[in-house]
């Protein structure tokens, strides 16, 4: 089946630095990818929709300047957490819809961000 | 408002026992319903997907049912194993926006020896 890969799996950074998380579709092209944030014991919360060749669409309440999204190619989307603070510590997951049918979503393995 | 609810919030069962997780949704119109398994610290993995015309779908020890009239779905796990310990998430796709799926809060299952 389709595979979506995320990197890094976990990252620890100092407050004020920026962190980039990559999401790749390994065996299919994805013009759209989704970025989620998940807090402990809670479900996934959609942050933004990444669109290849155009600007990302952010959900209400998500800071565009804090969470920069770039969809540089049909297989790669990146999420950059800028000037990270401890409250940005979370589990970030990406997904990509496959061509297999409506609602077919494949998720990455997730990236655990800890900001000290 | 489109919503997905799941019950129970958490469940503990003995290894080898069966269990059933519930999902109720108010999404309309409806395209499909998926059950995902999410291990701690990992991304969700798809277990089953059903369209409105399907009543049941099996994947090994996992069997999902769907009643589109009552807008209810269940996930039955047979002969549970320790590796079944995870969060199980019900995800519904609205017909109007296939990719903007709606996530349930999940059921945390713990299988103990």
Overview in brief:
Chain A is mainly β. Helices cover 0% and strands 52% of the residues of chain A.
Structure, described:
- The complex is a heterodimer of chains A (116) and B (113).
- Chain A is mainly beta and 116 residues long.
- Chain A has strands at residues 4-7, 10-13, 19-25, 32-38, 45-51, 57-58, 67-73, 76-81, 90-97, 105-107, 111-115.
- Chain A contains no helices and 11 strands.
- In chain A, the strands form 2 sheets. In chain A, strands 2, 4, 5, 6, 9, 10 and 11 form a 7-stranded mixed beta sheet that branches.
- In chain A, a hairpin with a 6-residue loop joins strand 4 and strand 5.
- Chain B is built from no helices and 11 strands.
- In chain B, strands 2, 4, 5, 9, 10 and 11 form a 6-stranded mixed beta sheet that branches. In chain B, strands 1-3-8-7-6 form a 5-stranded antiparallel beta sheet, with no helix packed on it.
- Chain B is globular and about 45 Å long.
- The N and C termini of chain B lie far apart (41 Å).
- Chain A binds chain B through residues 4, 6, 32, 34, 41-44, 46, 49, 91, 93, 95, 97, 101-110, 112, and chain B through 31-32, 34, 36, 41-46, 49, 89, 91, 93, 98-101, 103-106, 108.
Distance between the termini of chain A: 37 Å
What is the first-to-last residue Cα distance of chain B? Answer: 41 Å
The biggest sheet of chain B amounts to: 6 strands, mixed
Counting DSSP E segments of at least 2 residues, the number of strands of chain A comes to 11
What is the molecular shape of chain B? globular
Helix content of chain B: under 10%
Mean pLDDT of chain A: 91
Largest interface: A-B, 25 and 23 residues
* Total DSSP helices of chain B: 0
Structure class of chain A: mainly beta
The low-confidence parts of chain B are none
Determine the oligomeric state from the structure.
heterodimer
Counting H and I runs of at least 4 residues, what is the number of helices of chain A? 0
């Amino acid at each position: 089946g389709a595979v979506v890969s995320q990197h890094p799996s976990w990252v620890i950074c100092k407050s004020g630095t920026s962190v980039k998380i990559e999401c790749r579709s390994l065996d299919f092209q994805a013009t759209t990818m989704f970025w989620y944030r998940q807090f402990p014991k809670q479900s996934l919360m959609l942050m933004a929709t990444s669109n290849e060749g155009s600007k990302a669409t952010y959900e209400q309440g998500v800071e565009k300047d804090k969470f920069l999204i770039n969809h540089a190619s049909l297989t790669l989307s990146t999420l950059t957490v800028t000037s990270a603070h401890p409250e940005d510590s979370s589990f970030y997951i990406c997904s990509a819809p496959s061509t297999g049918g409506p609602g077919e979503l494949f998720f990455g393995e997730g990236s655990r961000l800890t900001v000290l | 408002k489109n919503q997905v609810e799941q019950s129970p919030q958490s469940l503990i069962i003995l290894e080898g026992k069966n269990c059933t997780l519930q999902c109720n949704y108010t999404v309309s119109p409806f395209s499909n319903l998926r059950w995902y398994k999410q291990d701690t610290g990992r991304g969700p993995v798809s277990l089953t997907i059903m369209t409105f015309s399907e009543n049941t779908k099996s994947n090994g020890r996992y069997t999902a049912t769907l009643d589109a009239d009552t807008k209810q779905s269940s996930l039955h796990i047979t002969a549970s194993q320790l590796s079944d310990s995870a969060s199980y998430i019900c995800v519904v796709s609205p017909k109007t926006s296939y990719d903007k799926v709606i996530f349930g809060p999940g059921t945390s299952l713990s299988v103990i020896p």
